[in-house]
């Protein structure tokens, strides 16, 4: 009987310690919200657009591989559109190949949260992957605009890559554009010209950022380049995706 009682106590103690460790781990785990476009029409071209796979996959794995928990939200909820061009073999990277075979993540993408149902208080940072889609929906989405403002005013990092800084177009803090006087980057006019879409997009990102008072800078076309100005982190193009995630991760680690 004594042996049975001792064994029972040992098991219960181990269970309590495990539960406590799990609670502590959950408490210490950083949580980031990914906001992805729901827009799938490339202007009046009859072609499809959406989010760019590399700009989602590279930051996702860079963060989750370091233990960061990620939720995904879209304006409409459910499956966000993927830009077909980003699935072309010529655009493939190790991260996109991993993405293509990640059944758990692909299932998660089919069931994204609706943007109106998320709360910044539940997260430590927010990240916006690009693709041309955000220029149409997230740039004008009032829920997204309010969400970015809320993250920023609650001293939480906000990250964007490629066309995603377009989501900042109408974001204001204390009556002034958030990007005013800030160092930022994003998909450049020359890169937009190179892909032949300067007459298709609703606005040129480089011009929009500058007209809102941003201190815009860029590297050579298609080269990795990311800029950090306080809580605001921006990357120029798909090649800059991992750089943005690394800067975001660094800010999250500093805030431990």
In short:
The chain is α/β, with parallel strands linked by helices and 256 residues long. 36% of the residues lie in helices and 14% in strands.
Helix-strand layout with pairing:
Layout (H helix, E strand, L loop, with lengths): L1 H27 L2 E5 L17 H12 L4 E6 L19 H7 L2 H8 L2 E2 L10 E4 L13 H12 L4 E4 L10 E2 L2 E2 L5 E2 L4 H6 L10 H7 L3 E2 L9 E4 L2 E4 L5 H14 L2
Parallel strand pairs: 1-2, 1-4, 2-3, 4-5, 5-11, 8-9
Antiparallel strand pairs: 6-7, 10-11
* Number of distinct beta strands: 11
- SSE pattern: HEHEHHEEHEEEEHHEEEH
Mean pLDDT: 91
Rg = 20 Å
- Specify the overall morphology: globular
Structural class assignment: alpha/beta
Question: Which residues form runs of ≥5 with pLDDT under 50?
Answer: 1-26
Strand content: 5-15%
Helix content estimate: 25-40%
**Spatial strand order of the main sheet:** 3-2-1-4-5-11-10
Report the major sheet.
7 strands, mixed
Count, helices: 8
C-alpha termini separation: 47 Å
């Amino acid at each position: 009987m004594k042996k049975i009682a001792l064994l029972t106590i040992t098991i219960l103690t181990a269970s309590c310690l495990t539960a406590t460790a799990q609670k502590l781990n959950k408490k210490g785990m950083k949580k980031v919200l990914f906001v992805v476009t729901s827009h799938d029409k490339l202007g009046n071209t009859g072609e499809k657009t959406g989010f760019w796979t590399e700009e989602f996959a590279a930051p996702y794995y860079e963060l989750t591989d370091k233990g960061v928990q990620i939720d995904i939200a879209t304006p409409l909820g459910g499956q966000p559109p993927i830009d077909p061009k980003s699935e072309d073999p010529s655009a493939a990277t190790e991260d996109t190949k991993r993405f293509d075979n990640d059944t758990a993540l692909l299932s998660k993408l089919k069931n994204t949260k609706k943007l109106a149902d998320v709360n910044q208080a539940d997260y430590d940072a927010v990240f916006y992957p690009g693709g041309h889609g955000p220029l149409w929906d997230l740039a004008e989405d009032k829920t997204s605009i309010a969400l970015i403002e809320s993250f920023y005013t609650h001293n939480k990092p906000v990250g964007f890559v490629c066309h995603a800084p377009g989501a900042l177009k109408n974001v204001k803090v204390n009556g002034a554009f958030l990007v005013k006087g800030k160092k930022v980057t994003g998909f450049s006019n020359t890169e937009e010209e190179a892909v032949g879409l300067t007459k298709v997009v609703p606005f040129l990102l480089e011009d929009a950022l500058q007209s809102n008072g941003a201190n815009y800078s860029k590297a050579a076309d298609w080269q990795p380049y990311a800029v950090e100005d306080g809580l605001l982190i921006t990357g120029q193009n798909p090649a800059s995706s991992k750089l943005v995630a690394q800067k975001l991760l660094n800010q999250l680690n500093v805030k431990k």
